[in-house]
Description:
This protein is an alpha+beta fold. The protein has helices spanning 33-50, 68-77, 153-169, 175-178, 189-206, 300-317, 338-348; strands spanning 2-4, 7-13, 19-26, 58-65, 90-95, 104-112, 118-123, 126-131, 134-143, 179-186, 217-222, 232-240, 247-249, 269-273, 277-285, 325-332, 354-358, 368-377. Helix 3 crosses helix 5.
Amino acid sequence: MTSRDGYASRSFRGRDGDAEHYIVVEAPPELDFAGQLDVLARRYAEATAGLRLTSESAIFRRIYLSDAANQAALARACGLFAEPGESPVAVSIVQQPPMPGGKVAMLAYHLEASAPVAKRRLGPDHLLVEKNGLGHLWSTGLCAGATAAPLPTAAQTQQVFGQLIDALAAQDATLAEHCVRTWIYVRDVDVFYQDLVDSRAEVFARHGLTRDTHYIASTGIEGACAHRYDTVLMDAYSVLGLDPRQVSYLNDFGRLCATKDYNVTFERGTRIGYADRAHCFISGTASIDPAGQVVHAGDVLRQLGRALDNVAALLRAGGAALADLTHLVVYLRDPSDYPRVAASLRERFPGLPVQIVQGAVCRPDWLIEVEGIAIVANADPALPRF
């Protein structure tokens, strides 16, 4: 774990020597956007140099902006959006103002491997990373691209999932069998979230994702792309060649109910096992009880505590713990809560990469939501190598 002024990183190295690195980088809020972008790039370069990472090791970056409509073009023109040469990177740009008061921040994922890793674009929004016979498909910036007139949120949801389904089908893969994680950003989430939920359920039912099968780990949160009329933006992670033995779903019904109990279609968490490690993808998790009700209404710190306790319970179901987290993303409805939340997280997780952004949760009474990925050692030679 590395923590410096402006950036933090956390790494996991498996028995085979292959390492995964998560890096969170922030920019000084007193600068203008161009200045913040420049400092962000320099701090990121310092972080990767300290970890001795090459540019080829970069797999995924999510760039958080405070005003995507006015900032996305400049962000796309900088070196953070793509590496030069033959080393493509999956880059997501989402409007979620970084706390406290910044214009840009970034979460990055790097893969350091002893064996060759092939990266190739399947299109502008899909990057395939091939390693040890598996294909890791990173899909970013999926949206309707509505610039001239608004489309209903339900139609946009169908279109966005259709883009992912088509990309998977082109690789002889399916949504139900190979998609592991989605991040769905909804503009004006208090207004349009239910339309997303209803439309997603229709998509899932058509593709074999039902109450009797399984869903996909996901976050549905306030956020936006740069297009004026888009209400839905999605990123996704899928694993091509995934063996069903690798997959299990994380629940603790003594602490929080199944999402289907209140007619929402996502998994609380998904564990993907490999021969030497397991990835635990924790969905957006709030202060919720076993009856599906909000706990500690009006108290952001107690809601944070309950949400983290829920995350800990989900991780235990996958043989992991909070100490195995590679990073946390924290969504705050009210930015004035930032100082107390940040102080609490620094005390509980010193040095852990934590990205705090402004993003309203799907119910107004939820003041905060958290998500993350934990990586834990595994010993099952019958499973594929990561």
